[in-house]
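Notes to self after the call with IL:
- keep both proteins in one doc
- input above output, always
- annotate only the second one for now

Protein 1:
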Amino acid sequence: MAIRRIGFIGIGRMGWPMARRLLEAGFAVTVQDAVPGRGADFVRQHGGVAAPEAAAAAAEADAVITMLPTSREVADVVAAIRPVLRSGAVVIEMSSGEPSATRRIAQDLAAQGVGLVDAPVSGGVARAETGQLAIMTGGDPALLERVGPALGAMGTTMTRCGDVGAGQAMKALNNLVSAAGFLVSVEALLIGSRFGLDPAVMVDVLNASTGMNNSTQKKLKQFVLSRGFDSGFGLDLMVKDLSIALQVGRETATPTPLAAQTRELWAAAASLLGPGQDHTAAARFAEALAAAELASPQVERKG
């Protein structure tokens, strides 16, 4: 059965452009969000239908996409929509959730003939806007083939990582590597700055050398040296993803000394800086430890 009607639950900073890309690809999309009025705002700007509650968004849908903060919200939404899900429908869980929790939800849904695949994303708001997300998937290959056109409207890279939950495990581990790279890159800039090096020049050298990573390419100049700290991905969400990575480590009995230290540093940054911070603001935590602030005459400050 081809998927044409999609209920999209959770149109926050990432979900909004993802739902818009589905509409532009010709899918019939009904949106719903916990924030009052957000669905109506979306419809005024882009079209589609706004539902007052999750069950209304899921009714008659071929597929339901969940893009929510944590697995707890996902479980609550699935409990609310189960009575209206038709046999043969598919839940596409695109949140950065807990693999073990997602597997439990999938088992419950299977009992009523509803499939579930997990498909978390990487690329941030900018790539969500352009439909160029990297999507990591887990689930039955036949189900993933069915939802492939919908995923293709939102991303350019779809990689099946294994069974249900595998995509979310991969997403958490990807963010673990990214988070460690960010912190060590900021520390390197602080060391070099005290030595007398221009941090912007350091970034250029790193990007031409073996120290290159996602942070040197896309974060240090753009969000740290500019003092914008506005990449669009929250610090609290990074800590959550790192906690999931450590949970996967515990469940697989894998020693995680570096991962644990990385998570503790990010959690300390979140505690120091307070709620509502962009994840790139974690650089301020490293600056506080060094009693120094990164700056470069080559990078214009925002604001």
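Protein 2 (the one to annotate):
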Amino acid sequence: MSSKDLFAHKSKEWDANSKRVQGAKAIANVIEDKIELNDSMHLMDFGAGTGLLSFSLSDKIGKVTALDNSPSMLEVFNEKSNLFGCETSIVNLDLSTQNLPEGSRFDGIISSMTIHHIEDVEELFKKFYALLPKDGFIALADLEREDGTFHSNNEGVFHFGFEPNELKEIAQRVGFKKVEVYHANTIKKPHAEFRVFLLVGWR
């Protein structure tokens, strides 16, 4: 199964998972607390899926571009785009292997639970850095290191979470400044609890 099809069968019921919705809202709350958003900002939601994270921030910004390599997830995003509090656009692209058009720029890049699906994180962070202007930001949420049991199927999973400070060091090595890590959420599953952190950095 190709990476872009991994989530095809999940897309229609993705938003029906209340824990997933609550988790996105929790991450959005931390982003709002740590970053001063305004209605002139154009954000990229990396690995946007159906837009749970960006929807929670949409009434605070001017535009969101949903970037994902899953056409079916973006189809659901598009179906509910009229509910967003800002302008929306969609890009079906795998940023780990492809590039956005020359001159693409965003005021900030947000992401929820996507980075662990990316094999070369440092290369991705370099691309993020190049897509931001001075004072642009990243706000990336993902799992703290786990034992591989978070997903029932680890196909397409390159990292069983991260040591937050290791990711912080990668961001700093690429050039991001004022990089901080915050606790964003705890996901409770029947067999274990999984902590989610938010990495914030500035260009």
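Annotation: The radius of gyration is 16 Å. The mean pLDDT is 92.
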